[in-house]
Design goal:
Layout (H helix, E strand, L loop, with lengths): L2 H11 L13 E5 L4 H13 L8 E5 L13 H11 L5 E5 L5 H12 L8 E6 L3 H10 L7 E6 L12 H20 L5
Parallel strand pairs: 1-2, 1-4, 2-3, 4-5
Helix pairs in contact: 2-3
Length: 189
């Protein structure tokens, strides 16, 4: 794969802002994922930097997911438990039905009803899922002008995804999913 191709894929998928570029948010939506502890640590950093506080509504969305059928708690519950271990006093609501990105955003929107009452919305997801999350939010008529994306890095991130076969496979599968979901109408170009 050429450096130019790697660069273009990285720019397309990894669209999350750096923590230094985030503002103060009144709504944070955490999309379910298996980076439970990493998400909690990022939220702790955001509290320390006054990006979020006790007045910020944090909605953690996620059931077991399609690949996590063997876990006994939902992803929302596990992420919340990790946050609770850090003794942060936050306004957290759990949405425990969603099994994919579209459902995350559908159920959160259903719960909140009026997203326009929020000034600044932050969506937290895995670092390489930012593009899909934003395209899905667009398809669901989220107010994009109020949304920032923050990607939590796990095993794969924008610096290393192209360095091993397993990571390349996962990132290329994400590109494929974006194409498939766009053709189905779940994502908006």
């Amino acid at each position: 794969m050429s450096n130019d191709t790697i660069e273009k894929i990285t720019e397309f998928l990894f669209i999350g802002k750096d923590i230094e570029d985030l503002k103060k948010y009144d709504l944070v939506i955490v999309l379910g994922n298996n980076l439970y502890h990493e998400v909690a640590l990022e939220i702790k950093k955001m509290v320390k930097k006054n990006i979020i506080d006790k007045d910020t509504l944090i909605v953690i969305s996620g059931n077991k997911g399609l690949v996590n059928a063997d876990i006994t708690s939902t992803e929302a519950e596990i992420i919340n438990a990790e946050i609770n271990k850090l003794n942060l006093s936050l306004n957290i609501v759990l949405e425990k039905r969603a099994t994919n990105t579209k459902e995350n955003l559908v159920y959160v929107k259903e719960y909140l009803q009026d997203l326009n009452k929020y000034k600044h919305i932050l969506i937290i997801c895995k670092s390489y899922l930012g593009r899909r999350a934003l395209m899905c939010a667009d398809a669901l008529n989220y107010p994009l002008n109020k949304i920032d994306i923050y990607g939590v890095s796990g095993e794969y991130n924008k610096l290393n995804w192209h360095t091993n076969t397993k990571a390349r496979k996962r990132i290329l599968e994400e590109l494929q999913r974006i194409g498939e979901y766009t053709l189905k109408g779940d994502l908006k170009m």
